[in-house]
What does this fold into?
Amino acid sequence: MSLAVGVIGAGVMGGFHARLFADEISGARLVAVSDPDPGRAGASAYGAQVFAEGLPLIESDAVEAVLVAAPDTAHHDLVMAAIRLGKPVLCEKPLASTVAQCREIVEADAGRNLVSVGFMRRFDPAYREMKAALDAGRIGAPLLIHCLHRNREAPRWFDGSMIVANAMVHEIDICRWLLDTEYTSASLTQIGDAGDMLLAELHTDRGAVVSVEMFMNAAYGYHVHAEIVGREGTVAMAEPAQVRLRRGSAMQVGYSPDWIGRFADSYRLQDQAWVRACRSGRPCEDMATARDGLLATGYCQQLVEHLPAGGGPLAPRM
Ligand code: ISE
It folds into this structure.
């Protein structure tokens, strides 16, 4: 029998996940969607049951597994409810807003492995190929990862700390995963006074350095890029566009307007891997765990604390 999935939150992310479970993910079926806005919930339900709140959805006997795509501040309570009922839960990043809340989740999940965190870049074919090249020794010892992460336009609700906690958190997780490392210090430069641009240099316990350009209002499109520089070579993402348009003595490459276009395959592969793991009862090796979610939130918290001073030491907060 397929896995009965309930999706909490029918915004951009919840709506996309709901469609994946309704249409594309094998071994799963969408049985419920919740959102305080009935119009949004209905539009993402594809005939599944609609709830106004997340808790009754988790408690419903019809729901076997839960995807949380509610606002960040609601994550902790929803994930804890799923753990209490023994239901697997895939929570969009961040796992929770504070280190204390993440720690509570890690403790409740210990030995049960019910919690996964939606750091979907771990399933992106480009990042995976880069990691495979690195792990196979094809570029020698890693020295530096150059990352850039640009959004076309910051959402209205974006504030100064969200550039770290909501957006750069992806680089924090993916570079830990790529290098299998922890961070030891950071230097941070805020560029301009709009709070939408940041240059970060993170040092790691294995000596490699991670540099990240964050720009929330890059205007031309959504653009994520990374290159790992090793002792014997480098491995870099190709531009993600699939086609080139040639016209009027020029060649054009398109960019997606947002992260859904760029990372659609990653979300699909992640959700499929999660369903497979839930059904087999065996954890998916590549999926971010509650512990990864705790570490990411801990680093973000320290980086936000260091922003005014332009940097400082980092350590895993457990
Ligand atoms: C956004 O808030 C996200 O959640 C996306 O995952 C990220 O890629 C994007 O850059 C953020 O602004």
Observations:
- The pocket of ISE is lined by residues 149, 151, 166-167, 170, 259 (CB under 6 Å).
- The first strand starts at residue 3 and ends at 8.
- The mean pLDDT is 96.
